[in-house]
Amino acid sequence: MSTGDGLAINEVTVRFGDTVAVDSVTLSIATGSICALVGPSGCGKSTLLRAVAGLVTPTSGQIQWQGNDLTAVAVHRRGIGLMFQQHALFSHRDVAANVGFGLRMSGSDRRVIDQRVSELLAMVGLAGFEARSIDTLSGGEAQRVALARTLAPEPALLLLDEPLASLDRARRGELNAELARLLRELGQTAIYVSHDQVEAFAVADQVGVMHAGKLLRVGTPAEVWADPQSEVVARFIGHETIIEVAGCRVAVPAKAVKLMPRGPGLGVGSETKIDVVVRQSVFAGDRFEVQVASADGMTYRCYSDDDVEIGTECLVVIDPAACPRLND
Ligand code: ADP
Ligand code: MG
Ligand 1 pocket check: which of 15, 23, 47 to mutate, most ligand atoms within 8 Å of Cβ? Predict the structure, then answer.
């Protein structure tokens, strides 16, 4: 299974009593790439991450880094950096002392540490924050300090467990984009756990979707979006409409739906031409995002160049070729 490059997780299962938190997960992550793990709360993301870090012992399976089995390697010798939602900074120390903590523990020279701390702070967008007290930081700034502290020892593998979950939406989007850029610049190998698929898709080279302990789908964000394979994965990544076309279950993304006026000459009532009523039309910069509903209550999302009035009776035409087929 292992090519010896990067991280290889092979058929890892973690049980807690009767609970199978992680169920025979196999996943490889190439050096220098970012893998996002997504899935609903309780699906086993954190447990898998903790197994990689060495904080929980798998019931069965192997975990290798660069071809070497990690099982017997102590947590602090794995070269792994961990960052969690709760940043656990030392609130009675200043920013520099927090960021330099690991470097001081490893006995580096004072001047070298100061230099490195300044570099790290600049990297996370906090140049000049050295002397600031932790209590005076905003939530986003505190997470940046936590990130700088985690990156300080140059971990071979970075594990991020919902690092932005404690922040408000606007901050999260901004910090997420910065985080993605930074990890890429560093060529950092990382696993990024999130329950927010939008966040994860923006950061990752590879996305793994978990459900009830199992890894259901792995691929690039584009591959997983275009071919989620199962309904669970399709729904989780944001496909809201799932219908049957020609005996197949398909997910219907907005770009597969064309909104048209009702009129003579257009055959109504087939699987792919559906009578609908406009429920919502939202201005989205260069277009309107429109939600419509059919008589049976199914809703469809689509785009329109022009605003359409709520209550307008229209027709949607669905392009089956643009709809991912589901296997279940
Ligand atoms: P996620 O991070 O995706 O929300 P977790 O990995 O935290 O999911 O949890 C997966 C499952 O394992 C849940 O059912 C959770 O209750 C259970 N679990 C996690 N840690 C423990 C533990 N230390 N002891 C018992 N059960 C646990
Ligand atoms: Mg978790």
Answer: 47
